[in-house]
Amino acid sequence: MPPQVCAQLCRRPCYCPWVPPRCPRGSPLVLDGCGCCKICARRLGEPCDFLHVCDQSQGLVCDYSSAPAGTGGTCNFEDDEEGCEVNGRLYRDGEVFQPSCKIQCHCLDGGFNCIPLCQEDVRLPTPDCPYPRRVEIPGKCCPEWICEAQDQHLLRDARAGKMQGSSTPGAVSPLLRHPCQEWGTEWSACSATCGLGFATRVSNQNRYCRLETQRRLCMVRPCPALP
User: Nearest 5 degrees, angle CA 209-CA 213-CA 217?
Assistant: First the structure.
């Protein structure tokens, strides 16, 4: 804006209302373009000019690019500010948003990082809950663990066996050999490079469904005979 126009708009001394204006939510009180009176900062998409300034705390500037000459502009983000586009929506740099109820993302330097809001914990079988199962709860975003009764667990495994096409009469699913869902580590390397040694693993495949260290004999190759 030319200096003579600014001088005409900015008159001294300042004459401001005794009571500052009440601003809508999200619009802070700021000094006008002359640095004289307090006004409500213009928000994104609202009209602006030299006197009616945009909310700089939100990174907004008065954009005159699409306005006719001699008229005001529109509050918009700076062109050089990096942002993120997710699912067709643009987020400004530094903004925190949730594409869904299960994740929360942070826009930063043109990219975005997301963290899960639902716990990805693992629940192992216990004596008071031998058949834990994670299910979706109506009305809730994150799935929750429930404890199934033994008859429900056996019925579900039996149905799964029928879906796999088992044709042997009276065949029992391998999952029913132990009263809990299998969980454990892989067998370790043999403790001896030659001759008999042992390998270990942690598993819950036992009578009480408790995690325990199991061992078994192993032999990589026979040891060479001594001269």
Answer: 120
